[in-house]
Amino acid sequence: MSAHDRQDAELFAQLRSLWRDVDPMPATLIDRMIAAVAAEGLSEEYALLTLVDHPLGAVRGDADALTLQFSDGSTSILLHVTRTAQGGHRIDGWVDTAAAVIELVQGERTRETVPSDTGRFVFDDVPDGLTRVRLTTTIGDEKRTLSTPQFEL
Q1: 68 closest CA partner among 54, 89, 87, 57
Q2: Whole-model pTM?
Q3: Where are the beta strands (DSSP E) in the chain?
Q4: Rounded to whole angstroms, how far apart are CA atoms 75 and 90?
Q5: What spatial distance separates the first Cα and last Cα of the chain, rounded to whole Å?
Q6: How confident is the model at residue 102 (pLDDT cuts 50, 70, 90)?
């Protein structure tokens, strides 16, 4: 280490000591930063689930119709779920963005559809079970995916 490097190291040590005394780091800063970094992806991983015109119990209740709205802040998906006479479900959906593909995922089963120009799409004869809707948009060369949290039919 040269004399110049030693002088720099001493100067930096004095500056650290000065700031440590004048403006000490908050005791909880490290824990808050770890929590912030751990939670950063949660809003993208779990889209905001909003029930529209139905009480919370209707998600798993015996309601004949269910309306769900999912949003990640820039894109929204509205789903209207009704029970069919055959015992399955019909999902009518609308998206507020140009979508390339809408996928309905139930376990290992995946069904795809392309929404109309107005953003409307339909899935018929959907069986009971945990369900997720995945929307893939393409703007220019950028491909973006919004995946809803799982909900039970």
Answers
A1: 54
A2: 0.58
A3: 48-51, 65-71, 76-83, 89-95, 101-106, 109-113, 120-126, 130-139, 142-147, 151-152
A4: 22
A5: 69
A6: very high
